[in-house]
Design goal:
Helix content is about 65%, strand content about 5%. It is mainly alpha-helical. It folds into 2 domains: about 375 residues, no CATH class; about 70 residues, no CATH class. A two-stranded antiparallel ribbon has the order 1-4. Strands 2-3 form a two-stranded antiparallel ribbon. The longest helix has 28 residues. The protein starts with a helix and ends with a helix.
Length: about 450
């Protein structure tokens, strides 16, 4: 193992990597339940999508370990799956078979871009301060996702608000939705306690303890599942056995009949844009937190990481799922000590096992993984200390980048606005000549600006 994954060189060991892989998987396991639900809205078979999701995640994570030896885990991305189902299919009128073809074409383009160093050049062109800001912004973003998943943060007249526990008690909903909010809050405190005490795998233990509390509450009647409001049993359902779901309804069902149309090109570009900059943002943020960047802010072996993402996307489309991308939840494994591809391999194996043990993995509720996301968010925002706040031409674009991610619910939007403001502010103040900003940054700023006005 040491020779294969260079554990000693990366100051880690097998036990730490296994715990990190399990931790990352546990924080990502929700995709096995969420992705089939979203894509089934487009008419796809839910069971087939579940199998495709698990297989694509397993293969892409193995590729990450093989190509780059990094602890980054991949799966069909959130946001991209919603765009696939609700925009491309339900709004634009494409069939899901054509949407899969668009995902496949996007993956092929990614492979070409990765081989020609375009994506690597973009990564290296982003200034160090902005990379730290990306890491911080992602921390805020995933913490917000965690709070939403647990329903601690809910929609309100003020856009968002804390869950109304008093109203839940009055309406008789406390034993379903309300109790999960309290369990998530308690889980956050337990996870924080374990972190303070420096318990190995504390984030993973936080997930398991919170899930166990949910099981106890359901068995004792304090928690009553109510599917009508989105709360489900936290007990594994073995009524369907352990068989693998049939993938044939979606396997190799790509339709390329409109591949040369303008609308098809627009769809491909949208997938391409979001996936590229979500992936770059995730790699920057997680690598920054894991101290994997070199002195110039570059990520060694990034070509391999990008290639794993691209090949995983093509394979996922053939299996029958939306764009496969590097998951920001990989930060949970990094926070647990993961530093090599062994973390990705462990997570990949668990995705493979989920094919047989779906009832167990699908039973992990979002309120149990929420404390992990909040904790990882805290760990990632410490990157803000690396931002040079004495230079406003650096600090202000970083600030814009950081707040855009959670407020606009998009890693790629944060990067776009951060790049635009960085170039614009330095040009206006004369800092561009002094800093020798990369030409790629100017190109990105123009392209990002055109995106908002033309697409």
């Amino acid at each position: 193992m040491d020779k294969l994954f260079h554990l000693s060189e990366n100051e880690t060991n097998v036990r730490t990597e296994i715990v990190a892989g399990i931790t990352t998987f546990m924080t990502m396991a929700y995709i096995l339940a969420v992705n089939p639900n979203i894509l089934s809205a487009s008419g796809m078979d839910r069971g087939a999508v579940f199998t495709a999701t698990a297989l694509a995640s397993m293969l892409a994570s193995f590729l990450m370990a093989a190509f780059a030896n990094y602890p980054f885990v991949l799966a069909p991305g959130m946001g991209l799956n919603a765009y696939f189902a609700y925009t491309v299919v339900l709004q634009m009128g494409y069939s899901w078979q054509m949407a899969l073809a668009a995902v496949f074409v996007e993956g092929v383009i990614f492979i070409v871009l990765s081989l020609t160093n375009v994506r690597e050049a973009i990564f290296n062109a982003i200034p160090l301060n902005l990379k730290a800001a990306v890491s911080t912004g992602i921390g805020l973003f995933i913490a917000f996702i965690g709070l939403q998943n647990a329903k601690i943060v809910v929609d309100s007249a003020t856009l968002v608000s804390i869950y109304p526990i008093k109203a839940s008690l009055e309406n008789g909903m406390f034993r379903s939705e309300g109790i999960t909010v309290l369990l998530a809050m308690l889980g956050i405190l337990i996870t924080a306690y374990l972190m303070v005490k420096q318990v190995k795998g504390g984030i993973l233990w936080g997930i398991l303890i919170t899930w166990l509390m949910g099981i106890i509450c359901e068995l004792t009647g304090f928690y009553v599942p109510d599917p009508a409001i989105g709360t489900y049993s936290v007990l594994p359902d073995f009524s369907q056995g352990f068989g693998i779901q049939d993938m044939s309804p979606t396997f190799m069902k790509l339709d390329f009949s409109k591949v040369f149309s303008l609308e098809f090109g627009t769809v491909v570009f949208a997938f391409l844009f979001v996936d590229m900059f979500d992936t770059l943002g995730t790699l920057i943020g997680v690598a920054q937190k894991a101290d994997m960047l070199d002195k110039e802010g570059k990520l060694p072996h990034i070509r391999g990481a990008l290639m794993a993402d691209a090949v995983g996307t093509c394979a996922g489309a053939m299996f029958g799922t939306s764009t496969t991308t590097t998951f920001v939840e990989s930060a949970s494994g990094v926070a647990a000590g993961g530093r090599t591809g062994l973390t990705a391999v462990v997570a990949g194996i668990l995705f493979g096992l989920s094919l047989f043990l779906a009832p167990i993995f699908l039973a992990i509720p979002s309120f149990a993984t929420a404390p992990a996301l909040v904790a990882v968010g805290f760990l990632m925002i410490t990157s803000i200390l690396q931002v040079n706040f004495s230079d406003y031409t650096e600090a202000v674009p970083c600030y814009i980048c950081m707040i855009a991610m959670p407020f606009m619910y998009s890693i790629s939007e944060g990067i776009a606005l951060g790049v635009i403001s960085y170039v614009a502010l330095n040009l206006l103040t004369g800092g561009a000549k002094r800093k020798k900003i990369s030409p790629i940054m100017y190109v990105l700023a123009v392209l990002f600006s055109l995106k908002y006005f033309m697409i």
